[in-house]
């Protein structure tokens, strides 16, 4: 028994050493396989693509605000509702605005009647000028005849003097009437009734009253999804107060935050392949780099870092890169702002030559034609 025990112990030690060597070889093989896989990934993908997990869906968010003060009469809309541009979202009580509109209409009508009356007065004044001019011509002939007769002794000097005074009186009346005609013409304006200053002022006041009245009905500025409802019926609102937000699902892009160590090879126009966590890898989006941010995210943070302080630690910064998406992919699989994405940016490949989407450069849109007709006059 004593002879067998050392042999058994030696065999156990040999088996244990063999298992250790085997485990070490397995571990070494796994490390080699990992390194080989990493090398293959770098050769096939890594050096041709920049893979970014820190990417999020972004989009334009249009605020819907009140432009006039008033009480909310009705809200024919709600959060998550799909709306089209021009659709009614909120209506305000407009009794006061309607009365102001009626008053402006009455003032405009009175101004037009006054302008028409001025036109008739001008016509009458000019007709009177013509009559006075005819009388003056006749008086001149009579005065000339009487003065000639007085010089020849055929008439009295008094009649000649009276005739001359009549000529002077008619000249004064004609000059006064001409001045009156010019005064009326100046009040009317050089371009007729439709361009009379008083009438134009009244019409502008009417247009402002109508604009103020029409703003009591609030329309959707764009087509999209409603969000962030902040009012209820019966609530008093002031100009500029937020009512809704609208997210147009066609105006979507992706912001990929790329490390500064991988940014050097990224160029505008580079092709991008993306996957959304909402759909998984079964749905692929295609796009291109529309632009690279003007600074790192830390620079534009609410509290930017103080690198001049004594306690300094270097962190790798990230720069936002805007990626435009293919509209066809967005129509098939809509995205919402805030969703997470994974992006692969081609660093050595063809460049996208087309322009950025038109809505990237946002301009003031044409005003929406009011859906409410002008109220009929009573």
Commentary on this structure:
Helix content is 42%, strand content 21%. It contains five helices and 14 strands. The chain has helices at 4-46, 95-152, 157-188, 197-214, 327-332, and strands spanning 49-59, 62-65, 70-74, 82-83, 88-92, 217-219, 224-227, 236-237, 242-247, 252-259, 271-276, 285-292, 318-325, 340-346. The strands form three sheets. The chain has a six-stranded antiparallel barrel. A four-stranded antiparallel sheet has the order 2-9-7-4, with no helix packed on it. The longest helix has 58 residues, at 95-152.
Global outline: rod-shaped
> Would you report the number of β strands?
14
In what order do the strands lie side by side in the largest sheet? 1-10-13-12-11-14
Uncertain segments: none
Order of helices and strands: HEEEEEHHHEEEEEEEEHE
Beta fraction of the residues?
Answer: 15-25%
Structural class: alpha+beta
Distance between the termini: 126 Å
Total helices: the number is 5
Query: Biggest sheet, open or closed, and with what strands and sense?
Result: 6 strands, antiparallel, barrel
| Oligomer kind | single chain
Mean pLDDT: 84
Radius of gyration: 44 Å
- Percent helix, as a range, is 40-55%
């Amino acid at each position: 028994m004593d002879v067998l025990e050392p042999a058994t112990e030696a065999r156990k030690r040999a088996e244990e050493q063999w298992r250790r060597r085997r485990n070490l070889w397995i571990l070494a093989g796994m490390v080699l396989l990992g390194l080989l896989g990493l090398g293959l990934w770098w050769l096939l993908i890594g050096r041709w693509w920049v893979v970014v997990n820190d990417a999020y869906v972004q989009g334009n968010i249009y605020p819907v605000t009140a432009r006039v003060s008033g009480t909310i009469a009705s809200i024919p809309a709600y959060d998550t509702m799909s709306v089209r541009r021009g659709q009614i979202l909120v209506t305000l009580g407009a009794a006061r605005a309607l009365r102001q509109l009626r008053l402006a209409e009455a003032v405009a009508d009175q101004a037009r009647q006054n302008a028409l009356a001025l036109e008739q007065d001008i016509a009458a004044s000019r007709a009177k000028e013509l009559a006075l001019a005819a009388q003056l011509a006749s008086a001149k002939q009579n005065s000339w005849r009487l003065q000639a007769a007085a010089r020849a002794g055929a008439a009295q000097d008094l009649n000649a003097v009276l005739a001359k005074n009549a000529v002077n009186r008619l000249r004064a009346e004609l000059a006064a009437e001409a001045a009156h005609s010019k005064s009326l013409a100046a009040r009317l304006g050089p371009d007729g009734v439709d361009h009379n200053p008083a009438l134009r002022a009244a019409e502008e006041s009417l247009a402002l009253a109508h604009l103020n009245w029409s703003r009591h009905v609030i329309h959707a500025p764009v087509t999209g999804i409603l969000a962030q409802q902040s009012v209820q019926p019966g609530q008093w609102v002031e100009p500029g107060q937020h009512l809704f937000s609208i997210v147009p699902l066609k105006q979507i892009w992706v912001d990929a935050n790329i490390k500064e160590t991988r940014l050097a090879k990224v160029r505008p126009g580079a092709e991008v392949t993306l996957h959304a966590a909402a759909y998984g890898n079964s749905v692929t989006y295609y796009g291109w780099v529309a632009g690279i941010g003007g600074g790192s995210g830390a620079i534009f943070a609410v509290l930017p870092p103080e690198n001049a302080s004594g306690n300094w630690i270097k962190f790798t910064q990230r720069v936002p890169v805007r990626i435009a998406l293919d509209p066809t992919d967005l129509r098939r699989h809509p995205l919402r702002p805030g969703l997470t994405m994974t992006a692969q940016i081609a660093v050595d490949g063809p460049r996208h030559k087309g322009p950025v989407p038109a809505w990237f450069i946002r301009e003031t849109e044409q005003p929406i034609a009011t859906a409410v007709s002008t109220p009929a006059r009573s």
